[in-house]
Amino acid sequence: MARYVAWIAETAAPEKRSPVFVAYPAGFDFLFVYWYLIRFVGKSPFSHSALDVKTYSMAMLKCGYREAGKRNMPKRWFDPHPHTHVALDDAIEQGALFCKHAGGEPTMTTVAPYNEFTPLAVEAAQKVFVLTGAGISAESGIRTFRDANGLWTTARLRLPGARSTPGRVSRGGRRVAGGWRKDAELVWRFYAERRAQAKTCAPNAAHAALAALEGKHDGLFLCTQNVDPLHERAGSRRAVHMHGELFKSRCESPRCDSLPFVDAGEYRTAEQIPRCRCGARIRPHIVWFGEVPFDMDLITDALEACDLFVTIGSSGAVYPAAGFARAARAAGARTVYVGPEAPENARAFDECRLGKAGEVLPALFVR
Ligand SMILES: [Zn+2]
Questions:
Q1: pLDDT, the chain, mean
Q2: Where does a domain end: 286, 317, 342?
Q3: Looking at residue 170, what is its pLDDT?
Q4: Residue 154 has pLDDT above 60, yes or no
Q5: CA–CA–CA angle 64, 68, 70 (5° rounding)
Q6: For residue 134, is pLDDT > 50?
Q7: Of 255, 286, 317, which one is at a domain's C-terminal end?
Q8: Which residues are annotated as catalytic?
Q9: How much distance in Å is there from the Cα of 188 to the middle of ligand 1?
Q10: Same domain? 238 vs 271
Q11: Do residue 228 and residue 300 come from a single domain?
Q12: 151 and 68 in one domain?
């Protein structure tokens, strides 16, 4: 221990700085080291305190303590050192992690008007994940679920994009299934209104910019929380609709082997609701609250592979989509938000570029 203290003194001396003990977890590792120092040397060059790697990560990642574990740390923080429980191996591993921490890119979120940022340069080999939310459609006049509040609360439905309403406790998916079972007519009337309204809306410059990017960049993965067809109408061919599609319907029976089909019908009475050839009713091809979003396997793979993650007009309040930015960042991607105001999950982004999607998108990507 005396040689250890001498080595530390020698290492720290040139700059006359007091050394700081860094450990993971400090509360455990430093307890022993401190006791050895006092027992065998009579003093601690570190004083009585240590810096805990996990606590430090919590500050860097801007998340809770329990979330700040190795699983959620970005891969770029790790060198390929083994964790062997041999003191020297683990010290090297943790030292490398701490150096990456301290020298890593800033994880502060820059929030500013969009024209204060330079465009995003997209290299041919880069994987770009774009998530679009209600904001991009609202600029085309599509009513959001919040606007349609009266309608869906009357229907006693819980729908994707709809947050809990005051005085009403969520019962998960049961309410939607219950709503559909109890009053399919009311559910269909809701979607008939939405279909009628969506038919009057046209894609905007943001949809067009994403369709243009798809045309020249194979590495684009476009995922939308929106059920409207504005991406397709703008020319996108590979949009993944995680919450379903307004202009598709399917059989309500999970045991039926018929496939979802294109359907622009507006069914407003029980008699108008079509039947499948199996006899069950036809329902909207929409992911209701409590149902599993579509294509989560594809989405998860694309998040892990992406170099650049861009969210456009999503409030950051609806999971699982609200967690995509953090997942992409953990996989090492740069994360960018575009919308008129910073979202609820703003801290998961490196940059929040404030502005309307239709104004920001045409000049956002340089390819
Ligand atoms: Zn059927």
A1: 86
A2: 286
A3: 37
A4: no
A5: 165
A6: yes
A7: 286
A8: 243
A9: 17
A10: no
A11: yes
A12: no
Find the 8 Cα to ligand 1 centroid distance in Å.
74
Query: pLDDT > 70: what percent of the chain?
Result: 88
Q: Same domain, yes or no, for 278 and 183?
A: yes
- Residue 350 pLDDT greater than 70, yes or no: yes
Quote the domain boundaries for residue 22. 2-101
Rounded alpha-carbon distances, angstroms, from residue 311 to 10, 143, 199, 335, 361: 50, 19, 25, 8, 11
Which pLDDT score is estimated for 102?
65
Q: Is 264 helix (H, G, I), strand (E, B) or coil?
A: coil
Tell me which of 16-25, 307-316, 339-348 is least confident: 16-25
Q: How many CB atoms lie within 10 A of CB 163?
A: 12
272 and 169 both lie in a single domain:
yes
Average pLDDT over residues 81-89: 83
Task: Give 244 Cα–ligand 1 centroid separation in angstroms.
Answer: 18
The type of residue at 147 is: D
Tell me the C-alpha distance between 199 and 181, whole Å: 27
Cα(270) to centroid of ligand 1, in Å?
Answer: 17
